[in-house]
Design a protein that fits this description.
It is a single chain. Strand 2 (222-229) and strand 3 form a beta hairpin. Helices cover 62% and strands 11% of the residues. It folds into three domains: 2-142, Tetratricopeptide repeat domain (Serine Threonine Protein Phosphatase 5, Tetratricopeptide repeat, Alpha Horseshoe), CATH 1.25.40; 147-190, no CATH class; 195-265, Sporulation related repeat (Alpha-Beta Plaits, 2-Layer Sandwich), CATH 3.30.70. With 266 residues, it is of the alpha+beta class. Strands 2-3-1-4 form a four-stranded antiparallel β-sheet, with helices on one face. It has helices at residues 2-16, 32-47, 50-63, 70-83, 87-100, 104-120, 124-137, 145-157, 161-174, 181-189, 205-217, 245-256, and strands at residues 195-202, 222-229, 232-242, 263-265. The longest helix is centred in the middle third of the chain and has 17 residues, at 104-120.
Length: 266
């Protein structure tokens, strides 16, 4: 459910980022006809006519490849590809946008998009780099909770636990009404500098202890840890201590052979 929520939020963020056409001061301006083409492409995109938008953007990029302002065309075309789930081409276009753009806000939005694409591909290291650059210049008034949230997850997955906690704390401070606040609170409150594999959660501590003993007989070292959730104490059975998410991911199949519903936490 959380993964689906993040994917939906990512699409909303990418759509929101397309609303403004940004021209950088001091650059050679595109001809009026090219500006009109860019405007028409944006209108087509916002209507959901991605094929029409792509045709106009292809023409603009082909005719004005050296203009700095063409960065906006690459950005908008990346959004069209994203809307059609063509993430490979979206990634290539957003790279071109970053390379050509001289406008800090456009560049930041492009980094946010690149981070989202790489996050969904499971590349936490590269995604974290783009999210870090995005947060330097994303407008403060925009809804950046998803960027902070995913950046925090990336940092956790890389074993950078203290830095991750800062990102979740930012959400709790600046975006208290966010639908991500509850998830951010849970991740912020995780007290360990490692991942674990949760094999079960019980109201009855004796049941949790019994499972931990059974796992021990299978040579899976497990502990029981009590946590307050929704006003009640749940006793979680946790196996392993993994500094990075990748280590936990590699260990998960072995434990799932013993416990079908085992999952990585936090």
């Amino acid at each position: 459910m959380q993964t689906r929520r993040c994917t939906e939020s990512a699409r909303a963020l990418l759509g929101m980022c397309s609303l403004a056409i940004i021209f950088c001061a001091g650059c050679v301006e595109l001809p009026v006809a090219a500006k009109n083409t860019l405007h028409e492409a944006r209108t087509s995109y916002e209507r959901g006519d991605y094929s029409a938008a792509n045709r106009k953007l292809d023409q603009l990029i082909r005719d004005y490849p050296t203009y700095t302002q063409t960065a906006e065309a690459y950005y908008l075309r990346a959004l069209c590809h994203t809307a059609r789930s063509n993430m490979g081409r979206a990634g290539e276009d957003v790279k071109q946008c970053i390379a050509k753009s001289s406008d800090p806000t456009l560049t930041a939005k492009a980094h946010a998009m690149a981070g989202a694409i790489l996050f969904d591909q499971g590349n936490a290291d590269a995604a974290a780099g783009h999210y870090r650059k995005a947060l330097r210049n994303l407008p403060k008034e925009s809804q950046n909770d998803l960027v902070y949230y995913r950046y925090g997850i990336c940092l956790q997955r890389l074993g950078r636990w203290k830095e991750a906690k800062v990102q979740f704390a930012t959400i709790l401070k600046q975006y208290r009404g966010s639908s991500l606040a509850e998830h951010a609170q849970r991740l912020h409150d995780w007290s360990h500098p490692y991942f674990a594999i949760q094999c079960g959660a019980f109201r009855d501590r004796d049941r949790a202890a019994k499972l931990a003993r059974e796992l021990g007989r299978s040579r899976i070292n497990a502990t029981v840890e009590g946590r307050i959730t929704a006003g009640e104490t749940l006793h979680s059975v946790l196996a392993g201590r993994y500094t990075t998410y990748e280590e936990a991911r590699r260990a998960l199949p072995t434990i799932r052979r013993r416990v079908d519903g085992a999952m990585i936490v936090p």
